[in-house]
Amino acid sequence: MTFSIEQLLPGTQRALLHRIATAQSEGRAPSLVAAVQRQGQTVWSGSRSCVDGHAPDADTQFRIGSLTKTFTAVLVLRLRDEGLLDLDDPLEKHLPGTGVGGVTIHQLLGHSAGLGAESPAPWWERTPGTLRPELADVLGEQTRMHRPGHRHHYSNPGYTLLGALVEKVRGASWAEVLRDEILEPLGMHRTSPHPRSPHAGGWAVHPWADVMLPEPAEDLGLMAPAGQLWSTTGDLLRFAALLAEGDDRVLCAASVEQMREPSAPTESGDWQSSYGLGLQLVRSGSRTLFGHTGSLPGFLAALWISIEDDVAAVALTNTTSGPMIGGVAADLVDIVAEAEPRIPEPWCPLPEADAELLALTGPWYWGTRPNVLRMAPDGGLELGPLQGDGRGARFTARPDGTWIGLDGYYAGETLHVVRNGDGSVNHLDLGSFVFTREPYDPAAAVPGGVDEGGWRGLEG
After folding, report:
1. Does the N-terminal or the C-terminal CB of the chain have fewer CB atoms within 10 Å?
2. Are both 359 and 335 inside the same structural domain?
3. What's the rounded Cα separation, in Å, for the pair 240 and 306?
4. What is the pTM of this model?
5. pLDDT tens-digit map of 198-251
């Protein structure tokens, strides 16, 4: 059962409008457009402009910069899901001769391949892509800055390599593959490598005077998979729905969920942000957001999604610097989530109960620490501390009767249900840890045994 989408309350709408109006005014942006989505439907959109009667709408294209990387990552995950490559494959296996050695596809997706942040001069964002006709021109002589896999170091050339990988495996241009495999299936008809009217022009605003300078809109050539795209708030919210729940026409829910998992160590002391596979992960107040920001001369963009609140927000502006657009989009999520919290779905019992699984639920003790095992709505199991913080995980069944951990401390660990000769359960074995029905149950196979004197008081 789901609840119908209702228009946001007037107070919420005014708070959203106030936020973008403040951003446009204080950030001195020629124009700014934003939109919010819940349950896959747009529930609010708004815009501000310095020219009366020319405010952008949900159909106006802006350049989205590095938000393009998320699209490229989806294309690579599709290749993996089709069995055409493995994320642990070295790039050389599929795209030989790049000179980057054995860096893996996974490392490129998560910016942990150790490659440089930018291409060699001249500044690639303001010069024609024809100046870098070959991958060697994008990578330069110093292809590695850091040891692969040991730290996050954002790399635009890394996504050029991923775009070239897509082209090599598919046998078509990156733009053609993008159109056929993402844009057309999702109905994103206003997203394109080059601008289509109506679209905003990019501007640089003087830092100390209220005057502007037009920015060039270059075709980035080989760098396109890192930042070429133009899009609209309407289209980006369609893309947000894919990133939130998956869409079997494009990328399944399990692969989308994998994109949201941290992929590499963050900078020392930086616990507020991380990077998955083509997705940025940030903490905004009490919630976790995922999405991506983007910038190119003349444009700033941001898309953030909160799974817990079922809210997505996008903000686009046509200025090189000014509004902190990532913060604007995050604030839009917060405004809706705080003012109109998500109404949970009604509780419903399972359609049927597995008696054997039901018998496993309830308290289990690791030594003397009480834990509880619950049946999950999806037919899996959930283990966690009975009270307070502690180790926990979700588990899914394997064909051999064991269970595999999906997350938390026990991710990837195997849970065995160890039975007595008569079929009754003796204990649970989780990565060698023994969980028993009673604290140090003498009838269970507790490592080291249980003292024969049993439990006793101080003078026992």
Report:
1. N
2. no
3. 10
4. 0.90
5. 999 999 999 999 999 999 999 999 999 999 999 999 999 999 999 999 999 999
Rounded to an integer, what distance in angstroms lies between the CA atom of residue 380 and that of residue 205?
55
Q: Say how far apart CA 265 and CA 268 lie, in whole Å.
A: 9
Give the residue carrying structure tokens 């509880």. Answer: 372
Query: Could you tell me the CATH number of the domain that includes residue 420?
Result: 2.40.128
Using the 3D structure, point to which of 339, 366, 396 is the last residue of a domain: 339
Burial class for 79, CB neighbours closer than 10 Å (0-12, 13-18, 19+) = buried
DSSP letter string over 198-230?
Answer: SBPPPEEE-TTSS-EEEPP----GGGHHHH--E
Please return the burial class of 7, using the count of CB atoms within 10 Å of its CB with bins 0-12, 13-18 and 19+. exposed
CA 391, 283, 233 angle in degrees (round to 5)?
130
Across 37-59, average pLDDT: 93
Kind plus residue range of the DSSP H or E element containing 382: strand 381-385
Q: Would you give the end-to-end CA distance of the chain in angstroms?
A: 58
In the structure encoding, which two tokens stand for residue 309, read together? 């609140």
Indicate the pLDDT class of residue 269, thresholds 50, 70 and 90: low
Domain count, the chain: 2
Task: State the Cα–Cα distance between residues 300 and 345, nearest whole angstrom.
Answer: 36
Whether 380 and 247 share a structural domain:
no
Residue in this structure with the two tokens 């004197």, named with its chain if needed: 453
Q: What is the pLDDT of residue 18?
A: 98
